[in-house]
Amino acid sequence: MDLYKHLFNSWHYVVRSLPYFFILYATLSIGSVAAHPKESVLKAVLDRGHLIVGVRSTTPGFGFKNERGELDGFDIDLARALANGLFDSPDKIKFEILPSGRERIPALLSGRVDMVVSQFSVLQKRAQVVGFSLPYCNADFSAIVRADSPYKKNADLNGKVVTTRQGAELDKIILKAIPQAKIQSYPNLSDAFLAFRQGRAEAFFNDNVAGLVIAAREPGKYRVINDLDNPLNANQFSIGVRQDDTVWLSYVNWALTRLALTGVLGDIHEKWLKTQELMPKWARTPH
To answer: Which of the chain's termini has less CB crowding within 10 Å, N or C?
Structure first.
């Protein structure tokens, strides 16, 4: 028993010390190249004593305010788990609410946040200015419809009124698969979903993961169209960090790997999506 306790304590020490090993590596490797290397976000976070994370508060299941007025959701739990890995406390975190998806990149580049955990899809244009972590959730842009509706395929929504968040790219994605869809766009997803819920549209377009959350929250009321023959836009969610900070990105990837290996990431998937089917292949631990 003493041996197991010693091994556990040794492992715990190594895990707790790893952030500082990342900083030491950065100092030795970068310091030899530049006389005044730019400080990594990792060191700034550790010196500050808490993590600052950019999140959304209007995305169902991922970043929203619950009945107590507190931030809740998949991305919120993931961010807290990352804070726990840094400080042994999920509460050593400050959330910066980003009113729209357009604010994610500026918040990173300005240094307002240490990272963005907000259904951040990896797109070629974004990858030119943002550093993306390993993906933590597979995603596809999908239609959420009423459970008793006749729509089985994306093409069934041709000529129908559908809702989504404002954004030219989103319109293009929908119209590519459903060219005759009548799109009604809203400033944010919560408004778009409300219009659908009130019967002003036949479908609500969002990420399929959010659709699963909505369907699980009200069983038998909604379902997600999973059209493998005519998919909309397969993608993955990753954590966004400053592109020029390879030390911070390496640490975030290590932290995500640890969450996957310890089962924490899988638990978050189960809690919010009721399945682990959308976990990326790299994160699935063998049984």
So the answer is: C
